[in-house]
Amino acid sequence: MKGCHSTMQLKSKNIFLLLTILMSALYVWPELNFQDLLSQGDHGRDLYAFDAVTHGKLPYKDFWWVYGPIMPYYYGLFFKIFGVHITSVLLGRALLVVLCSAFFYLSAACLMPPGLAFLGAAWFTQSRQEFFFTYNHIGGIAAELIIGWCLLSYIRMGAMRHLWIALVAGFVLGLVKINFGLAGLAGIVLGVLFIDYSQKRPFSDQKKKLYLCAAGLIPLVLGSIYWLLLKDLPLYAIRQCMPYFGTDQPYHASPLMVIPYYFTQHWLTLTHFIRVWLPVYSIRLPVGIIFTLILHGCTLLATYLLITKRLEKQYRQDILLALAVIGIFFVFYFHEFLVSGVWYRNYWSLPFLDLFHFVMIAVAFTFIPKFLRVFIRIFLGGLIAFLMILHIYTIQNQKEPSHYLSMDRGQIYVGNEPQWTDTVNRVTDFLNTNLKKDDLFFALPYDCLYYYLTGKTSPTRQLIFFDHIKIPQAQEISVIRELEKNKIGFVLMSTRIISDEIGLGIFGRTYCPLLGQFVHDNFTPIVRQGGDWTQPPGWANNHGVIILKKIEFEWRGRRDLNSRSSA
User: What phi and psi values does residue 282 have, to the nearest 5 degrees?
Assistant: First the structure.
């Protein structure tokens, strides 16, 4: 009977794993040709990098890149297989979202019934806060969750294979973002030491090899890879690509201020009302408050059960070990937010916060009456289904012509304002129509999206020009030489050349005075004030463009953005 029960459990676990994959695939399906916000800077940099590596260019060395080197090759593979369209990148991102959901479920299923683990994975999938500014970090979240699953599986099974898989995932995480890779490896070492000490497992030769790899060999290999890619660059360029020292980052905060801010924001998130539109009127439902009561009620009850030892001994020990491992990774992945106060940087730790919440719900379920367990499952399931339908409905409503990037390398709908979309379409069409095959242009201050959309190579290695990049005079001279060497006839400048946003500044005045003077002396406008030049420039809105040509460059093309070619 025990073998039959184990077989049924495995079958149930596999069924819910399949349901998790199907659920997450349904969630990301509308996003295969839609992106909520597309920025001409950050997303443009990503897209340019993904395309560049398919032509043999190297991150850092051949173009400015600020994360680990692996993700450009991952997305570049999708360009190779499915074509150079933003939809190819969105497909690659969607597969990683599905992978994250699957490993969140597998992690949760180590500690709770498959049905509840499925609800946890569904909640994580639809409520996770997205790294809205880059395609890079979702690869890191997938690696984090694989590491978490491996250590939680090790608690139950004690199999070394899970730890070796965790090390591989830690290595990949280091190639996505170096500081999180090192944090993940440290978490593996500390987690395994704590588990082995608690479960009185011997310190074997296999463990010695594991610790040697995690604390020595893998960091050494990671360091070697980064060194090979960075070694030919001057120190200022290395610091621009690896902004981990001194004042390289424009945002700094004290942990004493960040921690209260963190709890305040979470409280506001959990207690918000959801507005529902009915055929006649709209109503506000306090689902956030209900969810908060369930969440914190279960957490308090679970804490009481664990402290008073009212749970079966082995189960209690496994849960405490699991909570310790979850807590270790949560704290380690919290470090960027703790020293910056930039909200999106706490997203690295959120998968483990969600996992903690559902572990506490699972523990509480061992004590509360059946009718209450049924109510909580129905409420969570209904809330998840409602939010998923709302997600799909919201996206479908934005798939209109005014939100469509029509060029060959675009072919997606965006959530940006229609004026932004129209400006990007017109400017890209203008460049594609009027620039000859071998003509290059220089985009300032951070508008790499146009390099990607036109299929043109940047004339300089440097892709970004802002105050916080701290471009020294020697680099300005180097950029000017690159422009002259590549015989640049055109300069594209967006409204972000004049910005009061923290760390951006005014081109030619607060940063890059030599480069600003070079553009002023050698180029003259041919297209004036395309897009929005009346509002303060935004990250992905209020976007205006001016195009200049070199003074002695013969020009017989269009001088406006009001007409579109039929191409």
Answer: -110, 150
Q: Are 541 and 417 in contact (CB under 8 A)?
A: yes
Positive or negative CA dihedral for 489, 492, 497, 503? negative
**DSSP per residue, 4-32:** HHHHHHHHHHHHHHHHHHHHHHHHHGGGG
Q: Classify residue 180 by burial, with Cβ atoms within 10 Å: 0-12, 13-18, 19+.
A: buried
What would the pLDDT profile of 170-225 be if each residue is shown by its tens digit? 999 999 999 999 999 999 999 999 999 999 988 888 999 999 999 999 999 999 99
What confidence tens digit (pLDDT) does each residue in 101-151 have?
999 999 999 999 999 999 999 999 988 778 999 999 999 999 999 999 999
Q: 531 or 460, which is more confident? A: 460
Please tell me the distance from the alpha carbon of residue 107 to that of residue 168, in angstroms, as a whole number: 17
What is the C-alpha to C-alpha distance for residues 232 and 229, in angstroms, rounded to an integer? 8
The β-bridge partners of 498 are: 506
Residue type, 358: F
Tokens of 220: 């050494």
Instruction: Find, among 302, 298, 296, the residue nearest to 270 by Cα.
Output: 296
Enter the pTM of the model: 0.92
- Compute how many other C-beta atoms are within 10 angstroms of the C-beta atom of residue 408: 14
Per-residue pLDDT at 170: 98
Count of C-beta atoms within a 10 Å radius of residue 506: 15
Strands annotated E in 278-407: 282-285, 404-405
What angle (nearest 5°) sits at the alpha carbon of residue 351, between those of residues 348 and 250?
Answer: 15
Q: Indicate the residue type of 101.
A: S
Q: How long a stretch of residues is the chain? A: 567
Name the CA radius of gyration of the chain, rounded: 26
* CA neighbor of 512 nearest in space, from 486, 489, 493, 488: 493
Outline where 112-230 has alpha helix (H): 114-127, 137-157, 160-176, 178-199, 205-212, 218-230
